[in-house]
Specification:
The complex is a heterodimer.
Chain A (H helix, E strand, L loop, with lengths): L8 H5 L29 E4 L2 E3 L5 E5 L8 H13 L6 E5 L4 H4 L9 H28 L7 E3 L2 E4 L4 E4 H9 L29 H5 L15 E7 L6 E6 L1 H4 L4 E7 L11 E6 L2 H7 L4 E5 L8 H13 L4 E6 L2 H6 L3 E9 L11 E7 L2 E6 L4 H12 L6 E5 L13 H12 L5 E4 L2 H6 L7 E9 L5 E13 L2 E2 L17 E9 L13 H19 L3 H9 L4 E2 L8 E2 H15 L12 E10 L2 E11 L5 E11 L7 H20 L6 E2 L2 E2 L18 E6 L17 H13 L16
Parallel strand pairs in A: 3-4, 8-18, 16-17, 20-22, 27-30
Antiparallel strand pairs in A: 1-2, 2-3, 5-6, 6-7, 8-11, 9-12, 10-11, 13-22, 14-19, 15-16, 15-18, 19-20, 20-21, 23-24, 25-26, 26-27, 28-29
Helix pairs in contact in A: 2-4, 4-5, 11-12, 14-15, 14-18
Chain B lengths: L1 E4 L2 E4 L8 H8 L18 E4 L2 E4 L12 E3 L10 H10 L9 H14 L5 H8 L9 H17 L4
Parallel strand pairs in B: 1-5
Antiparallel strand pairs in B: 1-2, 3-4, 3-5
Helix pairs in contact in B: 2-3, 2-5
The chains are: A alpha+beta, B alpha+beta.
Chain lengths: 735, 156
Amino acid sequence: MNAPFEISRRSFLSASLLAGAVLSFQARLALAGDGATGGEDETVLNAFVRINPDNSVIIGAKNPEIGQGVKTMLPMLIAEELDVDWDQVHIEQTLADDKLYGRQSAGGSRSTPVNWLPMRQTGAAARQMLVTAAAAQWGVAPASVTTAKGMVHHEPSGRSATYASLAEAASAIEPPALDTVPLKPDDSFRIIGTSRRGVDTPAILQGKPLFGIDTELPGMVYAAIEACPVFLGTIGSFDDAAVKAIKGVIAVVPINSGILPKGKFDTLAIVADSWWTAQQARSQLKVEWDLGDLKQFSTEAYAAQADAALEGAPQGDILKKGDVEAGLAGAVKTVSARYDYPFLAHCTLEPQNCTGLFEDGALTLWAPSQSPGSGRRQVSDILDLPQDAITIHMTRIGGGFGRRLMADYMVQVAQIARAVPGKPVKMIYARADDVRHDYYRPAGWHALTAGLDKDGRLVALRDHFVSFGADGQPIRAAEMEETEFPAQLLPDVHFGVSYLATNLPTGWLRAPTSNAMAFVFQSFLDELAEAAGVDLPTFVLGLLGEDRLLPAVGRAPQFNTGRARAVIEEVCKFAGWDGKRPTGASGKGRGFGFYFSHAGYFAEVLDVAVSEAGDIVVEKVHVVGDIGSHVINPINAESQVQGSVLDGLAQSMIGQKIDQSEGAIVQENFDSFPLLRIETAPREVVVKFVTSPYPPTGLGEPALPPVIPALTNAIYAATGKRVRSLPISLDNAVA
Amino acid sequence: MDLTVNRVKHSVTADPEKPLLWVLREDLHLLGAKFGCGAGLCGACTVLLDGQPVRSCLTPVGAVGEAAVTTIEDVASQPAGQYVLDAWADLDVPQCGYCQAGQIVSATWLLGQMPDPQDEDIDAAMSGNICRCSTYLRIRKAIKAAAKAQGKGEAA
């Protein structure tokens, strides 16, 4: 198990609190529930920093680690400003406690921008307390004292002291407000910008139990679930006599999966002394599901409804700017096309799971969650349990991709644990449960028309977007922004929208909305570039015009055309893009894609070879990104970009789609919902960053969206076939 | 029944139909081999039986007999094991890390069979091990680095 970062009572008593303007640390809260352990001789400087007598430093990592490297990266920021050697640092995962640690979430590539300053300030504040303590002991001015590698020095007198020797005195000093502490100048960084391997890598290589599914507790029992195969269906009746007769079965518990109103039940949990026993017992369970009219929902029905919607006028408007009809009427050339993409599942390799213990009116969870705080609120609601009666240990997570921003597994195990009080229970989804009970990336359809003027300039753009919603509003992850590129650069734009009904719960899949919109708009822009007789980079650079800031609108952030231009120009140089459109179907082709999402600007060039049999081989991808002034951990940054690019290929070229029949999900495992395998990975994905004078932003997502249109545009260059539907099928492509 | 796992003999009381994976995880508390698909499709549960990779989620424990089981926890005991582990650490291959036990066990077997595998050999041997984070480029690189170190007879 990961040792939770808990503050010992003894240390706490001698420690001061670090009250910050930004994070409002209240170290006292870490003692809630009398669960604090420790008792080492370390001294607490603040909620994130403890110093050991041997001058090693324990730094708390507060955010969920899903493979994005945040457990290494956030402590790097603290260690930098604390001015310690990375070799001195031990890292521990903190408990989930947003009052103490601020936002603890892994989503939206937000950990870097949200924490870049606060984490540095936290380290700097602790350093300042050590400096103040040393200056007081030596009777010198704090400004004459310097630090390096966990030591404080006073050069004029030649005195030095370790942080450990000063820690107790420092902990008695009134902590400075975080926004007042001076930070290091960039040119003196010793950790930020240097490659640091994942802090858990050694334990992973030893097969140590790190993940949620590895949680083990004395007397633990296991649960498998039988969930209603049709979302929003409920348990009509059930007979569990045969299940209860099986040796090892402990209980059968009706629960709410978390998608139904409170008081309704759609899932039966089988609790046994072995997960395998519980899973085998499912076949003996007799359940009548109450499905009402839910069988009406199917992939075919959606497609027919979307076609019908696209034939009519949109139900509503996302953006109406200028006069698109006049713009199109005045255009010299118009181009129309329809694009679509399917529902997708997340398929984290670690299936959804959670461990819970309900005892004496309090619940403890060991949760592989990307958003433990929202899980705590939902669990509190379903159990009518105060939030402070719920303790959440954050385990390492075997893949997130947005799936674990949802808290269904926490809500489920909480109900199961309450039914077997005093017994820790580990609930695990079988793979089919995981595929068939996801929160899916919603499918979408677009009918696009654009007009070009006599100089080949794009002047008018119309889109009718069809996705899923209720009451005239999109459901989760089915949104489209009015700033969708290149709307802000055009005079006449109309984005209309129509919503279909579904019983499927939807959710955020890595680079949500962007993973679909980039495909649609960057592929369509390549069609427009062709109509204009230029290559796509030239066409996009022409649209961008002069370097300037386009304003933030609603949830959409400001867009810097200069940063966009820089990555496009750089990737063309990097890849040796020749600026010409392909002349014919040669079987080999290059494609380009640009996208701005999650605060990152990314341009990518992809080389593809398509055999006569139609086999698609991605040979190489060039990536250039701008995520601001610093790439905090380069060894991980490269890996995140390569993983994002390959994830984009998985979303588009290996047949991933979720189908629905009679209300239920059709796919069950990796034979019907394939994941990318090594032989499909390109030989090379080369990555380059350009820096810009803006605070650094995240890397979990923004490299993904542009690779999909880079691939479809490359396939067009190689074959003359235009891919307008995902997953890619050359049979369905338009020649 | 008796089971030899990581060079240690264990006495296990379990349904012979229970998959080896769940015996390792639940009965022997060896949690390195992972549950991914339960159908032999992802390779997260890969262990060695007398040196041969098998999907422990599909292997009934009753079928193991006297074969020696090697899991990630003792993969260093295999001739190529330490080279693979060193290369994996040096290149910081894992992202989430969930599949890596299976990847490392498969790679260790590959280097026992083929001292100098090329990309095509690596792809063929590792095709059964899914990495959802797609660390495949580093996996290829690490296997080549391990092969090189093994060839020189020195740790990476």
